[in-house]
Design goal:
Blueprint: H1 8-14, H2 16-25, E1 28-29, E2 34-35, E3 50-54, H3 56-73, E4 77-81, H4 82-88, E5 97-102, H5 108-119, E6 123-128, H6 134-138, E7 141-144, H7 157-176, H8 182-193, H9 195-203, H10 206-217, E8 221-226, H11 230-245, E9 248-253, E10 270-274, H12 281-293, E11 297-303, H13 304-309, E12 316-320, H14 328-347
Parallel strand pairs: 3-4, 3-5, 5-6, 6-7, 8-9, 8-10, 10-11, 11-12
Antiparallel strand pairs: 1-2
Helix pairs in contact: 2-7, 2-9, 3-7, 3-11, 4-5, 7-8, 7-14, 9-14, 10-14, 11-14
The structure holds 5-amino-5-deoxy-1-O-phosphono-D-mannitol.
5-amino-5-deoxy-1-O-phosphono-D-mannitol binds next to helix 3 and helix 11.
EC number: 2.6.1.16
GO biological process, one term: carbohydrate metabolic process
Subunit structure: Homodimer.
Length: about 375
């Protein structure tokens, strides 16, 4: 059942502190403060390049992972959506690592890419939520998200648990590649161990986000902005809003605004900014100032330091708890899910079964 919630989606959003903790505990040793992946049939220190392939929300988890793997493990990453990868026919090196991310493990485009990579001699590692899925069966190795069954068509807890697995994989890869010493690993894993408690704290912003949803529900178009690992969260926010509220939304890298989309800005367009205070914050802040100067209705998701440093007054601000920038994309996914959920409820759509969509897309 829905555990007392009105929709499966809301139940699944609220399960996140628990399932994130379960997923992490399967890979984290609290005594040694280290990450231990289940045994893999290949050595991570041999990995020279990672090819990431997924669709939809899972592809945004892959995008976050690209930032992590490149900046922390210093291994180059290619990234594609399943439907583009094969037909692009990229040159692939036998022995390279291909990483597939899928909640269902049945998505046709991702599965076809997996079969293509296997035929080319790549090592295929899948991150799936359904342990007995086709992708799990056909991969050389599998890491599972312990999100439990996800019923809502809009993916929520599968996404945040994918990020947890990808964060652990990044740490293990960085260590294997000699890019992370014990202190570095302890710092990153400390950030990860705090995620379940922070996620629970962030759920308490539900009412604030519901109030803001009223304004978003009146809009025809909505923009989401973020930089660095907040950029894929902007894309995810826009996807979530489109699929369940049917409002047109776009996610942009904050720095791309001035290259075109800023022309859309007026007082009718809500601009949702995902801006945890991190090394890129001031850049994002100056993009927000440009939006505010043009009358844009900014909904600012940051922490208290970010709100202090912004320099302009947004239409709405949500002052979230301060979090380690490494894990910020995991946590900032939650307000974005809640906002889309409340907008959809206001719009009266079928939240768990939005029109034209299937939970698992088994055709190309
Ligand atoms: O099962 P998968 O993770 O492979 O599914 C991929 C996409 O179809 C899925 O994430 C889709 O975009 C969701 N409806 C997003 O909420």
């Amino acid at each position: 059942g829905k555990g007392g919630h009105r929709h499966y989606m809301l139940k699944e959003i609220y399960e996140q502190p628990q399932v994130i903790g379960d997923t992490l505990n399967a890979m984290f040793n609290p005594v040694e403060r280290t990450i231990t992946l289940p045994p893999l049939p290949f050595a991570l220190d041999d990995v020279e390049r990672v090819t990431l392939i997924a669709c939809g929300t899972s592809s945004y988890a892959a995008m976050v992972a690209r930032y992590w793997i490149e900046s922390i493990a210093r291994v180059p990453v290619d990234l594609d959506v399943g439907s583009e990868f094969r037909y692009r026919d990229p040159p692939l090196q036998a022995g390279g690592l291909a990483l597939f991310i899928s909640q269902s493990g049945e998505t046709a485009d991702t599965l076809a890419a997996l079969r293509h990579c296997k035929a080319k001699g790549l090592r295929c590692l899948s991150i799936v939520n359904v342990a007995e899925s086709t992708m799990a069966r056909e991969s050389d190795a599998v890491l599972t998200t312990l999100a439990g069954p996800e019923i809502g068509v809009a993916s929520t807890k599968a996404f945040t648990t994918q990020l947890v697995v990808l964060a652990c994989l990044t740490i293990a890869l960085a260590r294997a590649k000699g890019q992370l010493d014990a202190d570095g690993e302890a710092r990153l894993s400390k950030g990860l161990t705090e995620v379940p408690a922070r996620a629970a704290e962030i759920l308490k912003y539900d009412e604030d986000l519901r109030a803001i949803a009223q304004t978003v529900a009146e809009a025809r178009d909505v923009l989401y902005l973020g930089r660095g690992t907040a950029f894929p969260i902007a894309l995810e926010g826009a996807l979530k809003l489109k699929e369940i509220s049917y409002i047109h939304a776009e996610g942009y890298a904050a720095g791309e605004m001035k290259h075109g989309p800023i022309a859309l800005i007026d007082e009718t367009v809500p601009v949702i900014v995902i801006a945890p205070s991190d090394g890129l914050f001031d850049k994002t802040a100056s993009n927000v100032q440009e939006v505010v100067a043009r009358g844009g209705k900014v909904i600012f998701l940051s922490d208290s330091e970010g709100n202090r440093r912004l320099g302009v007054t947004p239409a709405f601000s949500v002052v979230l708890p301060a979090v380690d920038p490494f894990v910020a994309p995991i946590l900032y996914a939650i307000p974005v899910q809640l906002l889309a959920y409340h907008v959809a409820v206001i719009k009266g759509t079928d939240v768990d079964q939005p029109r034209n969509l299937a939970k698992s897309v088994t055709v190309e």
